[in-house]
Description:
- Its EC number is 4.2.1.47.
- Helices cover about 35% and strands about 20% of the residues.
- Helix 1 packs across helix 7 and helix 4 (about 100-120) runs parallel beside helix 5 (about 155-175).
- The chain has two domains: about 5-185, Rossmann fold (3-Layer(aba) Sandwich); about 195-225 and about 260-315 and about 335-360, UDP-galactose 4-epimerase, domain 1.
- It is globular and about 65 Å long.
- It is of the alpha/beta class.
- The strands form four sheets. Strands 3-2-1-4-5-6-11 form a seven-stranded parallel beta sheet, sandwiched between helices. A four-stranded mixed beta sheet has the order 8-15-14-13.
- It has helices at about 15-25, 70-80, 90-95, 100-120, 155-175, 195-210, 230-240, 260-270, 325-330, 340-360, and strands at about 5-10, 30-35, 60, 80-85, 125-135, 180-185, 185-190, 215-220, 225, 230, 250, 255-260, 270-275, 285-290, 300-305.
- The longest helix is centred in the last third of the chain and has 24 residues, at about 340-360.
- The structure holds NADPH dihydro-nicotinamide-adenine-dinucleotide phosphate (NDP) and guanosine-5'-diphosphate-rhamnose.
- The site of guanosine-5'-diphosphate-rhamnose has 22 residues, from helix 3 and helix 6.
Amino acid sequence: MKKIALITGITGQDGAYLTELLLSKGYEVHGIKRRSSLFNTDRIDHLYQDPHDNDVRLTLHYGDLSDSTNLIRIIQQVQPDEIYNLGAMSHVKVSFDTPEYTANADGIGTLRLLEAIRILGLEKKTKIYQASTSELYGLVQAVPQSETTPFYPRSPYAVAKMYAYWITVNYREAYGIYACNGILFNHESPLRGETFVTRKITRATAKIAMGLQDKLYLGNLDAQRDWGHAKDYVEAMYLILQQEKPTDYVIATGITTRVREFVRMAFAEVGIRVEFKGEGVDEKGYVAACESADFQIEIGKEVVAIDPKYFRPTEVDLLIGDPTKSKTLLGWTPKYDLKMLVEDMMNADVDHFRKEKLLKASGYAIKNQYE
Ligand code: NDP
Ligand code: GDR
């Protein structure tokens, strides 16, 4: 029998990779997408199937995590074997600007799904995966962070996700629902949202190398993150729902890297060596050498600068995960290391901006985007 999965957040980075994975495993996939004034399905357009065709295995439904009636109706109609709750206002900095909305979508949204399972009497049929996060660890208590490390959330996003984490555990214990938290550390890819730091860096690096942008403005260069590739991480989500017993897992690489090092690695991909002058809010990164014949930028040019607007009211300084449990119980190991991740992202962005440069040279304007 073909399994049926329902994915919230299907239009996001992880939603796209997970959809691809589940379709490749023969699943029928349903996704919840928000109504938007523009098309917002770029990441899954290559998987689109005309709903009028026979044997359609990918179906999108309009919906929102803030609307329980809509969630109940979709779940009743779809009767999923597995729900992957990836939908969220996922930007930590933006959550300080929209704390109430974040609590509603990221916290209560999870409750709405769990209640829908209960209301529809699907406790024994429908498994649910909750997209929990390393942001729960927040202010460092101990490293590396594992399933037993205490939480100390440091943003409205993390506090909302903390509610979602515990309500998932509670519904598992109270009602016997197969409900699991994947505590995923940062994972990136060429599909990563443009305002997260890694993608912001790879896009800007490609543009600077191409002469399309002057400088990259960043916030805290000293934050340390345990970065993996989203393709590896969606494999873990799938595995988490295939086990005999439901439980919670840390998914991480076990290696941490500073933001400034990610900057160096990205520029190195286009043959540009960046060195940083000084420390703190005035810090600047200048081109120490330009080794690439393709991308010639002036030596000594400042390519990175700090803009304090990117600092957060409370920061998470250090994340480094301990993936022992997932390696042992799920047999999960990532295929990508950080170097491969940076290469993958840089290749995609260089390719993209090469085309944009051609368009610009032919007189077409390039879009401005907010970061
Ligand atoms: P994205 O920001 O790329 O995608 C978020 C998705 O959620 C989008 O499809 C978005 O829709 C949707 N969404 C936002 N608000 C709502 C809402 N109110 N109702 C329904 N859908 C909504 O995130 P990622 O793919 O990177 O992350 C997936 C999940 O994993 C998120 O929950 C995130 O918090 C969590 N997470 C991510 C990590 C990472 O490093 N990527 C690490 C740990 C956890 P739209 O396209 O319309 O905006
Ligand atoms: P994070 O990711 O907050 O860890 O949340 P993000 O890439 O936004 O920030 C990582 C670190 O980089 C620092 N930083 C900047 N960040 C952004 N976005 N823009 C900048 O200009 C900049 N300069 C420095 C940040 O201060 C931070 O320390 C991500 C999201 O995907 C969450 O949804 C997820 O739960 C966690 O990862 C795990």
